[in-house]
Amino acid sequence: MQTYYYIRVSSKEQNTIRQEVKAKEYSIPRECVYIERVSGKNITERPVLTNLMASLKNGDKLIVDSISRFARNTKDLLELVEQLNSKGIIFISLKEAIDTTTPTGVFMLTVFGAVAQLERDYIKDRQKEGISIAVSEGKYKGRKAIKVPKLWDKYYKMYKENTIKAIDVMKILGLKKTTFYKLINQYKENN
């Protein structure tokens, strides 16, 4: 049985020292401390967490500073904890005093996960309201609108008729995948 500690900060500029001190307080060996410096929006884009989850074995223990450092929404949290439970891994979140070896710990995990997601949703709503106000006052300097390529209509029609693949349209028009699909959504809204 081994104890691991997962640390995450949202950017490379943020400091991990506070979380590392906690890991030392629990006498966790340095090689069992996993540090991730990425935004946590999508768990599939967190390679350190993916590697950690793969290396955990039955009877191991995973400690995190708080739920928000481990998962960004209730669905992801519950899926991750289910993966841990299926492998016989104990999950502990220090801030929320959650220990999944107890029924109360499992219940509290669900409640705190929902509260954390609610807070993130509130933050998103406040951000949208702030942007809306800034736009109405002419102060918003957000990302420039995507410029539609000159031959977009022609290649979009071919794409919709399945005479050309999306990847080929992207290459011909010099578009990245996200830009291509944003243009499709924008085109659908306007037509």
From TrEMBL:
Does this UniProt record's set of keywords contain DNA-binding?
Answer: yes
One BP term from GO: DNA integration
Q: The organism sits in which domain of life?
A: Bacteria
Entry annotated with the keyword Ribosomal protein: no
Record keywords, A-Z: DNA integration, DNA recombination, DNA-binding
Q: Where is the Resolvase/invertase-type recombinase catalytic domain?
A: 2-138
**In the record, what terms sit under GO molecular function?**
DNA binding; DNA strand exchange activity
Residues of the active site: 10 (o-(5'-phospho-dna)-serine intermediate)
TM regions (residue ranges): none
Q: Which family does it belong to?
A: Belongs to the site-specific recombinase resolvase family.
The name under which this protein is listed is Recombinase family protein
Q: Which organism is it from?
A: Clostridium estertheticum
